[in-house]
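Predict structure. Chain length: 85.
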Amino acid sequence: MISDYTVLPLGTRVEGGEVKVCPKCLRRGLNVEMDGHSFFTHSQILNKDNPGNVFIRRVECHLLAAEIAARKSRQALPQRASPST
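Prediction complete.
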């Protein structure tokens, strides 16, 4: 099974998360927040080679609470005006 969250419309709710733009890599991903951490899963592949073995391969970005706060504060700062010539 392949799940590619980069192709879903922003705001789509799936598996306890919401598709948003990842502030780390600027791609779409399924955003799930857990224990002060924010995970953006861009895609995942599940394979079974037999009933006892399941392999999961994910492409994701992980942001710590401090990174999230720093990025939000930078986004809130006003843009510098360019000097007139």
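Summary: The first strand starts at residue 2 and ends at 4.
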